[in-house]
């Protein structure tokens, strides 16, 4: 393992935080440092430098039908989202698998590192039913987006929530509800 960085180290404008990490519940834990994965056994500490994106944030997270990017004068880009939705009628009798498209819009400030990880977990009540993790790069001062498509099994009508976050930061929650089929 590489030597720990100095307490005042600043890597490419990221906030640096030094702390000990302990596995919870006596389980082995995996963690990342310097793009390498480490395993920490129960009752052992691993001191690492934890990086959090400097100000990178989710500016929108929506379930959509389509996304279209187009250039306009400036040069500038327009993003057209169609079919924004938070619910849908069941497409088939229960049970079925549904794969809604989630778009997550991300902004990186001008002093940001431009590197991050988007994690989206899907929950039904207290149960996590799907998970997606995507690393991304974005030019500082610019925006990017990520599309997330999970296959969700429905055995009953009801709601799921997509929990979106960047680099283990705050969670943005987006609900999605499957309704009984519409009567014709």
Written description of the protein model:
By secondary structure, the protein is an all-beta fold. The chain has two domains: 38 residues, no CATH class; 123 residues, Immunoglobulin-like (Sandwich). The protein has no helices and 16 strands. Strands 8-16-15-11-12 form a five-stranded mixed β-sheet, with no helix packed on it. A three-stranded antiparallel β-sheet has the order 5-10-13, with no helix packed on it. The radius of gyration is 20 Å and the shape is globular. The N and C termini lie far apart (64 Å). The N terminus is likely disordered.
The percentage of residues in β strands lies in over 45%
Large-scale geometry: globular
Domain module count = 2
The CATH architecture term of the largest domain is Sandwich
The spatial strand order of the largest sheet comes to 8-16-15-11-12
**Structural classification:** mainly beta
Count every helix, treating DSSP H or I runs of 4 or more residues as helices.
0
The number of distinct β-strands equals: 16
- Please summarize the sheet with the most strands: 5 strands, mixed
Q: Say what the CATH topology of the largest domain is.
A: Immunoglobulin-like
* CATH class category label of the largest domain: Mainly Beta
CA radius of gyration is 20 Å
Quick one: CATH superfamily of the largest domain? Immunoglobulins
């Amino acid at each position: 393992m590489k030597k720990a960085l100095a307490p005042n180290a600043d890597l490419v404008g990221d906030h640096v935080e030094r702390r000990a990490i302990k596995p919870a519940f006596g389980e082995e834990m995996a963690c990342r440092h310097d793009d390498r994965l480490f395993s920490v056994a129960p009752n052992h500490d691993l001191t690492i430098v934890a990086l959090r994106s400097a100000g990178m944030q989710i500016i929108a997270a929506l379930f959509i039908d389509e996304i279209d990017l187009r250039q306009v004068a400036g040069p500038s880009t327009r993003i057209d989202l169609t079919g924004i939705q938070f619910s849908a009628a069941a497409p088939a009798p229960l049970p079925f698998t549904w794969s809604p498209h989630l778009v997550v819009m991300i902004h990186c400030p001008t002093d940001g590192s431009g590197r991050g990880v988007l994690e989206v977990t899907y929950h039904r009540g207290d149960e996590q039913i799907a998970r997606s993790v995507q690393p991304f790069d974005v030019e500082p001062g610019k925006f990017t987006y990520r599309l997330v498509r999970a296959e969700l099994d429905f055995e009953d009508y009801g709601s799921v929530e997509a929990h979106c976050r960047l680099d283990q930061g705050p969670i943005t929650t987006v609900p999605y509800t499957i309704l009984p089929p519409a009567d014709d």
